[in-house]
Amino acid sequence: MARGREVDVRRLLGSLPLVRQVRAGDLLGLGKGAESRRSAGLAPRTAEADRVVRSVCPYCAVGCGQLVFVEDDRVTQIEGDPDSPVSRGRLCPKGAASASLVNNPQRLTKVRYRRPYGTEWEELDLDTAMAMVADRVIATREATWQAVDDKGNRLNRTLGFGSLGGATLDNEENYFIKKLFTALGAIAIENQARI
Questions:
Q1: Is the pLDDT of residue 178 over 70?
Q2: Hey, which bits of 61-125 come out as E strands?
Q3: How many Å apart are CA 168 and CA 59, to the nearest integer?
Q4: Span 179-188, pLDDT tens digits
Q5: pTM of the model
Q6: Helix (H, G, I), strand (E, B), or coil: what is residue 65?
Q7: Is the pLDDT of residue 122 over 80?
Q8: Whose C-alpha in 9, 74, 79, 143 is 20 to 30 A from the C-alpha of 89?
Q9: Apex CA 101: angle with CA 189 and CA 78, to 5°?
Q10: Collapsed DSSP state (helix, strand, coil) of residue 180
Q11: What is the C-alpha separation between 155 and 144, in angstroms, rounded?
């Protein structure tokens, strides 16, 4: 009976990670000594990916680099890009979970429009929606344009519309939006990151 217990104790001790590390000469636990039978058989989630696409995190203006793993035209994993000079392979929790943004079944992928006094949403193609926005911006600019003030000072502005940029835009997008709205004559240009 005692012999059987001794064998069980040796087997138990031999299965402990620390004992395996010492036996393997892997004192830091970075190699085979730290590997269990279960972990030895695991493969990375990214091993099945058809391709890897470099991208930028959509959540804030920092612009962290991402590696987007795609399998069968579906995003399967997003990780930090170690070659990115901005983030050096690191992502915040939101950036690391951005695959759920892409794969969310409730994500809208078509333009939805509800006409004035309408009660139902209708789907529009992107070209029609963009033309509607452009027409309304031009009409508002023409209707609210202020060329000069009461004293004859040149204004060349409109107070009819403005821009509130989002913190999910990167620096280049915010720069472009600022330039666009300034060229249109808007002076009410802000970003939610400052509010």
A1: yes
A2: 65-71, 74-80, 111-113, 122-124
A3: 4
A4: 999 999 999 9
A5: 0.56
A6: strand
A7: yes
A8: 74
A9: 110
A10: helix
A11: 12
